[in-house]
């Protein structure tokens, strides 16, 4: 019975309305008031912001950021419990995509010079709904949710974030907020690349040969698990010290790029149906030749020049130049070998995360968290990510204090209940 009581701790990972601990045999319940919108109680929140683009020194902590109120009937406000960092956050901190993202935030900004600052980074969120617009039908205050925050919206390195309900999904039941925050952005990116650009899905991936370059990072570790759940054969390139990780996630073959010429190692293998390139650089120059010719094989790269071009050339010229580059490469490859050359991009998709939640709850996809930092150490988390050679995700515990208080409360309740039951059993034995 004591081991059963420990399941009560799992129920402490909630911040909703009344939650009952009956699943663990505890007949007590507790309540936290999260159903009221924070806008009714406070006008400002804590957040990490940048007021200019640059290196780690531009990160600034403040508790004077306006709470992002629900301004549309389809929006939900989320109390952030955990967030995670992606390489995109480092790039955006330095100004990557600034012009195009500013236009996406406000189409009228092309006519003026208003500043986009302060900007809040952070693309992953796991937390609890605290307010909903009048047209929201899928969520209510108290629901535990996860989401990928679009780059053009204020991010999750803050107490609250507001998104449309179509960008949000219910969090997997079997994951803590810390674990859940490691998945949404890489899942949305991988799904967009593999499904929209690669043409793969649950019903079409069986026995397809897929190569993932840079397989030990966030997108790579997620893609391995997703493709194996779909029945694909997965080959991964990574360094020797990450081989155990990717094999543990299901990779069928692993090529150590530090152990000699990676191209020679791959060329002796059977050719591939799909290549997902997380590395970029000169990879595409040799990777395309590893695909099956004239069979509908696809090369998808997540390292594209679109935002770099718009930053350096301006919105119009940069977009035209990027489009011409994509068209030229796609035409060359389809003519020479019948291979499709495509770019992959992140796309927000709450319903797609619903499908991922099912795989998570079925044990098919696990969180891969390399490091955790408290909210007070966001700059240190950025430094960790900038070191490179990621082995999963770097997670920020935003509402750590509240979570620990709830866990301690429930632990004390369950301990008292267990002791009371033991006393009752002892009394029964005496009689």
TrEMBL record:
> What is this protein called in UniProt?
NAD(P)H oxidoreductase RTN4IP1, mitochondrial
UniProt pathway annotation? Cofactor biosynthesis; ubiquinone biosynthesis
> Per UniProt, what is the name of the gene that codes for the protein in this document?
RTN4IP1
Q: Which family does it belong to?
A: Belongs to the zinc-containing alcohol dehydrogenase family. Quinone oxidoreductase subfamily.
Q: Which GO MF terms are attached to this record? A: nucleotide binding; oxidoreductase activity; zinc ion binding
Recite the UniProt keywords alphabetically: Membrane, Mitochondrion, Mitochondrion outer membrane, NADP, Neurogenesis, Nucleotide-binding, Oxidoreductase, Signal, Transit peptide, Ubiquinone biosynthesis
Where is it predominantly found? mitochondrion
Q: Which organism is the protein's source? A: Seriola lalandi dorsalis
Q: Does the keyword Membrane apply?
A: yes
């Amino acid at each position: 019975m004591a081991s059963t009581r420990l399941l009560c701790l799992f129920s402490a990972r909630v911040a909703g309305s009344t939650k009952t601990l009956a699943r663990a045999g505890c007949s007590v319940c507790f309540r936290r008031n999260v159903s009221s919108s924070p806008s009714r109680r406070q006008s400002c929140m804590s957040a990490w912001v940048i007021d200019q683009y640059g290196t780690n020194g531009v990160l600034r902590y403040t508790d004077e950021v306006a709470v992002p109120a629900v301004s549309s009937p389809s929006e939900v406000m989320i109390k952030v419990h955990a967030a995670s960092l992606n390489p995109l956050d480092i790039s955006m901190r330095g100004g990557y995509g600034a012009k195009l993202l500013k236009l996406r935030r406000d189409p009228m900004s092309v006519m003026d010079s208003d500043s986009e600052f302060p900007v809040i980074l952070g693309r992953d969120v796991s937390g609890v709904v605290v307010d909903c617009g009048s047209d929201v039908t899928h969520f209510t205050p108290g629901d535990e949710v996860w989401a990928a925050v679009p780059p053009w919206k204020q991010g999750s390195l803050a107490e609250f974030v507001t998104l449309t309900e179509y960008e949000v999904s219910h969090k997997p039941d079997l994951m803590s907020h810390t674990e859940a925050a490691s998945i949404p952005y890489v899942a949305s990116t991988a799904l967009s690349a593999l499904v929209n650009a690669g043409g793969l899905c649950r019903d079409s991936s069986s026995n397809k040969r897929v190569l993932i370059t840079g397989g030990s990072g966030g997108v790579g570790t997620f893609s391995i698990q997703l493709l194996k759940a779909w029945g694909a054969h997965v080959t991964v390139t990574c360094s020797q010290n990450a081989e155990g990780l990717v094999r543990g996630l299901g990779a069928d073959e692993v090529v150590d790029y530090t152990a000699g010429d990676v191209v020679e190692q791959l060329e002796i293998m059977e050719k591939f149906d799909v290549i997902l390139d997380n590395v970029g650089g000169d990879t595409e120059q040799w990777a395309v030749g590893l695909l099956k010719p004239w069979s509908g094989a696809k090369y998808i790269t997540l390292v594209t020049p679109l935002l770099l071009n718009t930053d350096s050339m301006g919105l119009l010229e940069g977009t035209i130049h990027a489009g011409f580059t994509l068209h030229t490469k796609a035409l060359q490859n389809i003519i020479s070998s019948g291979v499709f050359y495509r770019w992959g991009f992140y796309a927000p998709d709450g319903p797609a995360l619903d499908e991922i939640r099912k795989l998570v709850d079925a044990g098919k996809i696990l969180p891969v968290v390399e490091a955790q930092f408290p909210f007070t150490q966001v700059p240190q988390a950025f430094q960790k990510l900038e070191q490179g050679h990621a082995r999963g995700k770097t997670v920020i515990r935003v509402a750590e204090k509240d979570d620990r208080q709830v866990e301690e409360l429930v632990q004390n309740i369950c301990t008292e209940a267990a002791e009371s039951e033991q006393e009752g059993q002892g009394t029964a034995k005496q009689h």
